[in-house]
């Protein structure tokens, strides 16, 4: 396990003590990237690109040789940012429409359909079972539930609820919170029609029956999906809505992953890949504004896991936040050793250059954890402490199962 703080290596005991202290700060949040969902069925953008290359060699040839949107070197080394490629392909499609080139327009529709399909499949997590209810009960979301439980249980009276930032489209956090009975404020509200209202991020739940400090206990967390979600879509009236997983699957996702349905992909919310960019820009802009605002608050800790630092915008916000003297960031980066070697040999990707820059900073505000499996999502969650009085085992789930069995008349259930 490689751990660096302020550019210097520290031991594991000091690191665990540091993490415990950070969990007591007034504002605690996490930033999760694609790597945080790999353990529950997701794929990284690198794996999405590898699948695209294997499944669509003809389209790969068009991107490299005819339209020069991808370099041969980046393709061979799997350095292509699929999200940015979707953005560029969308621009080329617009130019093809303007020029009246039907052949080019069809080629880019086919390219975009294939890219949408790859990104969407990677985010389903549970495959064809995506539309089913109670997904959070599945064992693959164990660590997402533990993460939310630990973050909320460490909050003290008067402190803010935890903030969950993610670049993922998947529903791992939503499903985990739902199974725990935790309410997530994600900017959308409404019973039958859920629409985006930024003021929802300024709301909170409290127990009206509690007295004194107890009334400030937390029953919720804030969720900011920086790159959109599989269940967000925009209708023809330019309104951004959130729908259930089953409705999203039946109305949009199924067509995208089973057919070359470019039109359906234009309704789902992918960064840079929506024709109604002025409306979607408002949603994304608000998410990023809240991210920067959170990092600027006093006494703030941010834990980063599964994020490859390939998003320049996010990198700049994090670097800028270090001007806040009471901001601390802990970054889990499994391939840290390889990144150091690649930077030394001048063959590093932009993401690797960013993480090495952060690792070399002499600020004690920055802690970087490497070491392969020691920096994976499950290891990160295990490093977060439970409060002293919090039960270590999942007694809530055990109690729910016992009550369910009793209600079915399955006999005596030991407690």
Structure description:
With 415 residues, this protein is an alpha/beta fold. The chain has a domain at 43-124. Helices cover 45% and strands 13% of the residues. It has 16 helices and 13 strands. It has helices at 12-22, 45-55, 57-66, 72-76, 82-99, 102-124, 142-153, 172-180, 245-258, 262-265, 277-295, 312-321, 336-344, 350-360, 377-383, 395-407; strands at 2-5, 8-9, 27-32, 163-166, 183-185, 188-189, 194-196, 220-225, 232-234, 240-242, 300-305, 327-332, 366-370. The strands form 2 sheets. A 9-stranded mixed β-sheet has the order 2-1-13-12-11-3-4-8-5, with helices on both faces. The protein has a 4-stranded antiparallel β-sheet with strand order 6-7-10-9, covered by helices on one side. Helix 7 crosses helix 8. The longest helix is centred in the N-terminal third of the chain and has 23 residues, at 102-124.
Short description:
Helices cover 45% and strands 13% of the residues. It is α/β, with parallel strands linked by helices and 415 residues long. InterPro entries: SIR2-like_antiphage-assoc.
Q: Low-confidence parts, pLDDT < 50 over ≥5 residues?
A: 272-276
What is the 3D form? globular
Q: Please report the total strand number as a whole number.
A: 13
Q: Taking all residues together, what is the mean pLDDT?
A: 87
* H/E topology pattern: EEHEHHHHHHEHEEEEEEHHHEHEHHEHH
Beta-strand residue fraction: 5-15%
Category from helices, strands and their pairing: alpha/beta
Computed over alpha carbons, the radius of gyration is: 22 Å
What strand order characterises the main sheet?
2-1-13-12-11-3-4-8-5
Main sheet summary? 9 strands, mixed
Distance between the termini: 40 Å
Helix content: 40-55%
- Helical element count? 16
């Amino acid at each position: 396990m490689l751990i660096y703080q302020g550019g210097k290596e520290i031991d594991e005991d000091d690191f665990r003590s540091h993490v415990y202290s950070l969990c007591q700060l007034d504002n605690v949040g996490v930033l999760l990237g694609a790597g945080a969902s790999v353990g529950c069925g997701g794929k990284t953008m690198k794996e999405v690109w590898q699948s695209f290359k294997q499944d669509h060699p003809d389209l790969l040839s068009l991107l490299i040789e005819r339209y020069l949107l991808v370099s041969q070197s980046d393709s061979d080394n799997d350095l292509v940012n699929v999200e940015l490629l979707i953005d560029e392909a969308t621009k080329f499609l617009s130019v093809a429409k303007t020029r009246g080139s039907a052949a080019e327009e069809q080629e880019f529709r086919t390219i975009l359909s294939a890219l949408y399909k790859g990104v969407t499949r990677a985010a389903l997590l549970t495959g064809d079972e995506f539309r089913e209810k109670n997904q959070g009960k599945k064992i693959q979301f164990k660590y997402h539930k533990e993460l939310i439980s630990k973050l909320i249980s460490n909050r003290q009276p008067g402190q803010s609820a935890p903030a969950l930032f993610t670049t993922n489209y998947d529903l791992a956090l939503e499903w985990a919170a739902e199974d725990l009975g935790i309410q997530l404020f994600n900017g959308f509200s409404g019973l039958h029609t859920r629409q985006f209202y930024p003021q929802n991020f300024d709301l909170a739940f409290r127990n009206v029956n509690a007295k004194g400090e107890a009334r400030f206990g937390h029953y919720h967390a804030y969720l900011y999906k920086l790159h959109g979600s599989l269940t967000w879509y925009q209708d023809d009236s330019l309104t951004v809505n959130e729908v259930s997983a089953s409705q999203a699957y039946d109305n949009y996702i199924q067509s995208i992953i089973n057919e070359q349905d470019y039109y359906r992909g234009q309704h789902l919310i992918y960064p840079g890949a929506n024709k109604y960019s002025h409306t979607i820009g408002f949603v994304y802009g608000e998410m990023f504004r809240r991210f920067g605002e959170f990092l600027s608050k006093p006494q703030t800790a941010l834990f980063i896991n599964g994020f490859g630092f390939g998003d320049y915008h996010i990198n700049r916000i994090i670097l800028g936040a270090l001007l806040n003297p009471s901001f601390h960031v802990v970054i889990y980066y499994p391939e840290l050793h390889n990144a150091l070697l690649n930077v030394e040999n001048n063959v590093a990707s932009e993401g690797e250059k960013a993480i090495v820059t952060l690792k070399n900073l002499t600020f004690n505000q920055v802690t970087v954890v490497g070491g392969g499996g020691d920096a994976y999502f499950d290891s990160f969650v295990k490093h977060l402490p439970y409060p002293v009085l919090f039960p270590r085992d999942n007694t809530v789930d055990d109690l729910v199962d016992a009550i369910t069995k009793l209600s079915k008349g399955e006999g005596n259930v030991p407690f």
